[in-house]
Amino acid sequence: MSTSTQIAPKQAPQQNQSLKPLLEVAPVEFAEKFSRTPFLIRHRLTDHPLFAIDRLLELAKSLPEGCLEYNAGQLPVNCDPSLTPLNGLSAEETIERIATCKSWMAIKYVENDPEYRDLLHRCLGEIAPHSEPIVPGMTQAQGFIFVTSPGSVTPYHIDPEHNFLLQIRGAKHIHLYDGNDRTLLDEVHLERFYSDEHRNLKLHDARIDDGWKFDLQPGMGLHFPVTYPHWVQNQDEVSVSFSITFRTPDLDRRRALYQINHQLRKRGWTPPPVGDHRLRDTLAYTLFRIRRKLLGTAKSDCSRSCNGM
Ligand SMILES: [Fe+2]
């Protein structure tokens, strides 16, 4: 099924002037930090009926099985995805028993439901005026809802989208690390990630305190720059979070360049890091696009396995 939704500022739903904005964004801080460093925003979704457990249960029942991902929630920070334990419950049972079943659940691509799509587009319509001057071409609006038991841990990983995580209910500690620190996240791991290997990474004990730590409470939202590593620990209550994400054309270029370097490295070359040689990157991406067009192999990773927040 198609899981991506196109959205652009000019196409974003018109704001009903009688409604308050859903998000509170500080324009100067957004301009300074977006895509470079995490920052907090505020939102007005904590009492929104689309995040009531009964409505989430209805959503989970209505979406295809591939849009649901769930497992036991009490995991280590470093977790081999092939060893992630299941919780022995159905998706519906997981939501119904989320307070006690020690589980983690992601409801993916919620834009397939018209009501959630409208909410997602309305939120991103408020982000677009701020993001477009920095990374133009907002597209592939996708929403993810995470429903997690008290104490659950989401292992250390990276994600490919521009993302704002809006905390609806409960609280989370977010441990977020500088994605430009190549001693934490090197070129080889980025190449593997963009070549569809799993997003989980290994965080060495000595580096665990080297990132930002955010105490995300209901009504708060956090910006995750693309591929900034993170792991998440729920606090003592059930948590519901809404992740609003989008892509931009520069991310397609970034993905392609890492895929090219992955192929070169597999053939024994040592390619220069992406971004070190602008002319080389431009030439490589141009050739990549020509080849992709000739072969008709345009590929999207929008059906990714979602490790979530
Ligand atoms: Fe994540």
- Please compute the radius of gyration using only Cα atoms: 19 Å
| Class from secondary-structure proportions | alpha+beta
Lateral strand order in the biggest sheet: 1-2-10-7-12-5-4-3
Give the low-confidence spans: 8-15, 300-307
H/E element sequence:
EHEHEHEHEEEEHEEEEHH
Largest β sheet strand count, sense and barrel closure: 8 strands, antiparallel
Bound molecules: fe (ii) ion
CATH architecture of the largest domain: Sandwich
Helix content: 25-40%
> What name goes with the CATH superfamily of the largest domain?
Cupin
Number of domains: 2
Distance between the termini: 23 Å
Beta-strand content: 15-25%
Categorize the overall geometry: globular
Mean pLDDT: 90
Number of strands: 12
Describe this structure in words.
The chain is of the alpha+beta class and 309 residues long. The chain has 7 helices and 12 strands. The strands form 2 sheets. An 8-stranded antiparallel sheet has the order 1-2-10-7-12-5-4-3. It starts with 22 loop residues before the first strand and ends in a 14-residue tail after the last helix. The model is unreliable at 8-15 and 300-307 (pLDDT under 50). The structure holds fe (ii) ion (FE2). Residues 157, 159, 230, 307-309 line the site of fe (ii) ion.
Write a brief structural summary.
The protein has 309 residues and is of the alpha+beta class. Helices cover 28% and strands 22% of the residues. The chain has 7 helices and 12 strands.
